[in-house]
Amino acid sequence: MSTYHPLSVQEAIELARTIPGHFSEGADLSCREIGDGNLNLVFHVTDTSSDKSIIIKQAVPYAKVVGESWPLSLDRARIERQALQIQHQYCPSLVPEVYAYCDEMAYTVMEDLSSYTIMRKGLIEGGVYPNFAEHIGEFIANTLFYTSDLGMNQQEKKVLAGQFVNPDLCKITEDLIFEDPYRDSPNNNYAEAIADEAAALRSDLPLHFEVALLRDKFLTRSQALLHGDLHTGSIFVTPESTMVIDPEFAYYGPMGFDIGAVLANLLLNYAAQPGWSKTEELAQREQRLLDMVPAVWNEFESRFRALWNRDLQDEMARTPGYQDHYISQILKDTAGFAGCKMIRRIVGLSHVADIDGIPDDALREAAQRKALAIGKALVRHNRSVSSIEHFMEVITQAINEIEVSI
Amino acid sequence: MSTYHPLSVQEAIELARTIPGHFSEGADLSCREIGDGNLNLVFHVTDTSSDKSIIIKQAVPYAKVVGESWPLSLDRARIERQALQIQHQYCPSLVPEVYAYCDEMAYTVMEDLSSYTIMRKGLIEGGVYPNFAEHIGEFIANTLFYTSDLGMNQQEKKVLAGQFVNPDLCKITEDLIFEDPYRDSPNNNYAEAIADEAAALRSDLPLHFEVALLRDKFLTRSQALLHGDLHTGSIFVTPESTMVIDPEFAYYGPMGFDIGAVLANLLLNYAAQPGWSKTEELAQREQRLLDMVPAVWNEFESRFRALWNRDLQDEMARTPGYQDHYISQILKDTAGFAGCKMIRRIVGLSHVADIDGIPDDALREAAQRKALAIGKALVRHNRSVSSIEHFMEVITQAINEIEVSI
């Protein structure tokens, strides 16, 4: 099995049998390929006579996005597998366990999460996740702290960073998030109804300036091992628990990029809620989504500070005032990256179902304009954001302005 | 020759004969080992009957500094060789040519620079180098621009950065420059006469705060392929020409670190000049050294801007105002790193002959205090430095204050 080829369903079953401690000998295994076919094959192998199951994820040597196909390194399977293992080490209850892998065949055998819902789908259906802020706060605090120069030996960190050089996947981010929305790119994708917004993005030079600074941070700031694609489609939830998956975009980058991804996707779902003629239930749902933003940040911040105070590996970082400064810079970056991620999901190549799935044209357009208003405000003000309360004020003001104008 | 062992003089001669196009068949070659024995063997192979000669530099698997010895990866020879080749590619007249190498044996065969003087020695002897600012400005502008995301493909840059993961050598910098001078470390080394200064450095928390920020930049900012140790002992000069050698500390870091190293070492030599009872000649020498600081920066800046305007690889970096902002940030970093490098050369492990070589105790102490005053001022003000004129004002003010107090 050492020369790469896409696994067949039969091969996936045979492979599943070799994983120690899962299926009993002679178990009647069945297998379905459940991937979306764009980047990976995903085999779901179940024992028909028990509740045991596993997932085998295998990378394919190309990416398909909205019909386009381009070659993509299989090394991303190794990167994803290694990132999963590191994240599982620091957050065992929040990241699936890797049971086996083969880098040549670009597959990873891991814990099955079929009992979970993809969080984006859950949010669209109005799901309530009271533990989410605590869980994701723990995930980002632990994974970012312990892979940074603060929480690990600085020489080992450099070697680890070298193992996460991820040019193919980073290029997708650099193009789709930090460039295409601001120029006339064939990758862009938006309805004629918001062509005015797209045109305004292309000519907004003060906004470009902020995006250029954020792009530079994405390109050059090797702060911690990022998940790299931490949107609500990479998070599996139940009302009680949370699992983070799919870290194939993992690389050493700025901490605010991961935190910004979480907040941006909560805000995209928020923007998808109808802005007027609300029922009481809808108003509560809106408020719940908005409240999750500071809740996630506050969980992250308090946990990150606790880790810093307990496990700091860098003597100079004990200097009074440095921790406050460091965290305030993460918050500014978080605002900027969250804004970039909201903007690209409206005018760029890849959208979110939260908004695209709104059947009514006028409501969908209003949601798009609201998301853009929040995203632009976060980018514009990112360097001056001074607290999470200020972060929320920037959002609220943008919402109020756009609700008057719609 | 593929298993590592230190070359003998006889082996060096045999190796030299194999380099195509240098020595005629049957040439009478002689060889001397001229290294200082701390990090490398350096063989100087000459043809006794012609003026032809080459250098063979071989790493040894340890470092010796002031009697201490610790293991050091031989991979630094590969890093140095590869950095030399890249720097030679962008500055062929300013970096010696690599003729041959063997990574397993950790040697590089290169152009002989015996006709040059080590710049530190030249400056100590009062040498005048009217082309130096132009040459070193070209070196730093070209090597930093073309290895950054501005001047090269951003995916290729990531792969290149992965080849320059250099934990062993970076650790020396992290410890000796960004930590030891600010704590009670057995690595520190200073005369009893300036014990008050050393104690003040250990308790100066606002200074520690700035050093912690600069240390973080050194640890995490993968901006360009740095030389990494660009002091005047790594620069060979004649009155007409300049050659940059010894990039074994090369890694992807913040641009200001290389520029700061050059300026710090000019300022260390400046500080070594007697501050009072000057002859006209000494006053001119002092002024010449001070004038080189803005001259180097201005050469760098104008060349870097020209490269940016001609060869930029990043569309978003064309945003109006971004170039000015980027360069102003490099200047701030340059000030901070220059300051850190001056401080560590006075109280840290490794000193400079410019100052340690002053025979008179009182003059040497005055030079040490002057260097510390300039270094601390640059660190303290680094984030507010707004122009090279302002940078010089910070220095001048520090000099004036210390000359009153000495």
TrEMBL record, chains A, B:
Pfam families: APH
Superkingdom of the source species: Bacteria
Keywords: Amino-acid biosynthesis, ATP-binding, Kinase, Methionine biosynthesis, Nucleotide-binding, Transferase
Catalytic activity: 5-(methylsulfanyl)-D-ribose + ATP = 5-(methylsulfanyl)-alpha-D-ribose 1-phosphate + ADP + H(+)
Binding site for ATP: N40, K57, E111, D112, L113, D246, P247, E248
Keyword Glycosyltransferase: no
Positions with a binding annotation for substrate: D229, R344
One of the protein's GO biological processes: L-methionine salvage from methylthioadenosine
Aminoglycoside phosphotransferase domain location: 31-265
EC number: 2.7.1.100
Any one GO molecular function term: S-methyl-5-thioribose kinase activity
Pathway: Amino-acid biosynthesis; L-methionine biosynthesis via salvage pathway; S-methyl-5-thio-alpha-D-ribose 1-phosphate from S-methyl-5'-thioadenosine (hydrolase route): step 2/2
Subunit structure, as described in the record: Homodimer.
Function: Catalyzes the phosphorylation of methylthioribose into methylthioribose-1-phosphate.
Alphabetized HAMAP family for the sequence: Salvage_MtnK
Protein name, entry field: Methylthioribose kinase
Gene source species: Paenibacillus algicola
Name of the gene this protein is made from: mtnK
